[in-house]
Amino acid sequence: MNEQPVVFGIDHGYYNMKSKNCVFASGLTAYAHEPYTKENVLEIGGKFYVVGSARQALQKDKTAGEDYYLLTLAAIAKEIEHRKIERNLSVHLAAGLPLTSFGRDKQKFKNYLFRDGQPVQFSYEGRSYTVTITDVSLFPQGYAAILMQRDLLEEPSVIAADIGGWTVDLMRLDRQIPNAASCRSLEQGLIVCLNNIAEQARRQLGISPTAAQIESVLRGENPSLPQRLKELIHIEAKTYVQNLLSAIMESGLDVRAMPTVFMGGGASLLKRYAPAAGELCRAVILDDVCLNAKGYEALQKQLNEQAKQVQNG
Question: What is the pLDDT, as a whole number, of residue 289?
Answer without folding.
Answer: 87
